[in-house]
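Work Package 4 report. The design task specified in the project plan requires that, given a folded chain encoded as structure tokens, an amino acid be chosen for each position. We show below one input record used in the internal validation round.
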């Protein structure tokens, strides 16, 4: 295991920032591996789109693009590819026939569930290799980090957002 930083070093914003960036690389790598193991081949940005639809339900293209933080034309290209792959459908909005609504197919929902389960398993393996005291410290640090970033705790968000992502957080 990597050696721990001396306590004084953890007060340094640059040291903490480097540690968070390093951890985020690990989490992105875990996400990429989980996605690569899926039968359906989608990119990470396409998967984010699937997660947003899974979390928030059906959506208009403009709303989806806003949630993803991309231009509607970029979202449309992703949607077209996901429709071709059978992961998303487009239908006329029954409340306003001039609008179309996008939603996950059963295959798309199964993909999100499968990739999320694989990611959870891989993260659990990493956490299991940590000493119990380090796990407690990690929970405290990540809780403080997410609170400082304005994210609700998973316990608060789980009922409304099963993947732990609230409105506007792709």
């Amino acid at each position: 295991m990597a050696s721990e930083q001396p306590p004084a070093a953890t007060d340094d914003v640059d040291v903490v920032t480097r540690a968070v960036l390093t951890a985020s690389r690990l989490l992105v790598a875990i996400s990429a591996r989980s996605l690569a193991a899926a039968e359906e081949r989608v990119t990470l940005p396409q998967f984010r789109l699937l997660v947003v639809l899974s979390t928030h339900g059906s959506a208009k293209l403009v709303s989806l693009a806003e949630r993803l933080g991309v231009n509607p034309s970029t979202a449309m290209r992703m949607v077209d590819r996901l429709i071709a792959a059978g992961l998303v459908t487009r239908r006329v909005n029954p409340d306003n026939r001039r609008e179309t609504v996008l939603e996950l197919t059963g295959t798309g929902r199964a993909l999100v569930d499968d990739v999320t389960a694989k990611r959870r398993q891989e993260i659990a393996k990493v956490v299991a290799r940590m000493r119990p005291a380090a796990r407690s410290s990690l929970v405290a640090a990540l809780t403080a980090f997410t609170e400082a970033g304005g994210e609700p705790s998973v316990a608060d968000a789980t009922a409304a957002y099963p993947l732990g992502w609230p409105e506007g957080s792709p």
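The domain at 29-145 is CATH 1.10.10.10 (Arc Repressor Mutant, subunit A). Validation will be extended to a larger panel in the next phase.
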